[in-house]
């Protein structure tokens, strides 16, 4: 199947990845900061006390709480003011958070800054995959939208290696303030590049701005100044015709069906909402964020000390970056649901083996046990990154129709943040009291989630965003393979067959 994308399309996706980098950096910077002696000493967290565990749990949990608020704010703002304005607002929140984090003088200021950081990150992780899915052709949507997951983890890796460098600084304040300050870089660059990002053509259609939408769609598929004059029978015109007819159909159904309440009352919409939420919850229920956020502590439990713990953590996410890129490449061929289920199964097995190693073999004197512990941690991230990470964002961004894609994606990402609020808030205390037993909880949850996904979730690869409606029992205004456009009809006003 032909890719049907242009340099304009690729440039748009590459600029959007600055938002992915913003989220990834904000989400990971504290992980490595917890390994910096200067940070621990400044906030009196060096001792493994109840106070330290409470503060660390709070600054992790408050980020997720901010993320929930930001996700729902983005869901509302995307439809009200457009994708572009939402992206710019998320950038401003992220820049402000970086400034406050770098200048934190006490734990209260740090906690407030982390909430704002979570808010900006929550907005960003909703808007970027929505934006990407709405400007990507169906045959390459996995590859292009999958870049969101790739660059999130690339930011995690960059954060890790920056932390390795600052760890060896003799300036204890620089060790942690400089990484926090760098959080401003990507959102600032995204804000500067935003004039080169087009508004979503599907959002423009929903606003009745058909001509502007066609101008963008044509440029997404054809390079050059004559893009808007491509033949009416071209791929771009067929896609635009399908988009336009589907928006007309959905708008009529939305108005006659009762508006926003349909997300609760209409079975097909309700099904999509819980599936989106479940995908993101299931990703967190593997234990990925607990492993990642408390990785430095985990390596210390395995007997490693000093800078080697941060190096191992940075290597962990570097491997994850490569695995995410592999996922983006194969996703359009293997399928979303197959990758997700393989990832869940692999994570469950890897974490089971990791728990066994911690229970039986690890310790300062057990070199074999420690080595196996590290091996299983890296097996875990390979399965998570290659099967779940990028794939979950792609799947959630494409299962919703255009008029509820923003609130649907926001509700899905709430699954991420609400899950991590719980898992990370209790993480330090749980790891201190029951150790490897906490990982067994995630193994059990993942076993249940795997069965649910295998039984209920439909495949979406290769379908246009409009055709995915059929997977949930909703009408498709025009099927792409049957979409023949009259060359003399520039606006595509002919009647469309509606699937009943």
Protein topology:
Blueprint lengths: L6 H27 L3 H6 L7 H32 L1 H20 L4 H28 L6 H5 L1 H21 L4 H10 L3 H9 L7 H6 L3 H12 L13 H23 L4 H4 L1 H18 L3 H6 L1 H7 L5 H28 L1 H25 L6 H32 L6 H21 L1 H7 L3 H20 L44
Summarize the structure.
The protein has 500 residues and is mainly alpha-helical.
Structure notes:
With 500 residues, the protein is mostly helical. The protein is 73% helix and 0% strand. It has 22 helices and no strands. Helix 3 runs antiparallel to helix 4, helix 4 runs antiparallel to helix 5 and helix 4 (83-102) packs antiparallel against helix 8. The longest helix has 32 residues, at 50-81.
For the termini, the CA-CA separation is 28 Å
Mean of residue pLDDT? 85
Poorly predicted runs are 485-500
Rounded to an integer in angstroms, the radius of gyration calculated over CA atoms is 23 Å
Task: Classify the beta-strand content into a percent band.
Answer: under 5%
Percent helix range: over 70%
The number of distinct helices, counting runs of at least 4 residues, comes to 22
Strands, count? 0
Largest sheet, in brief, is: none
Order of helices and strands: HHHHHHHHHHHHHHHHHHHHHH
Tell me, briefly, the overall form. globular
Structural class: mainly alpha
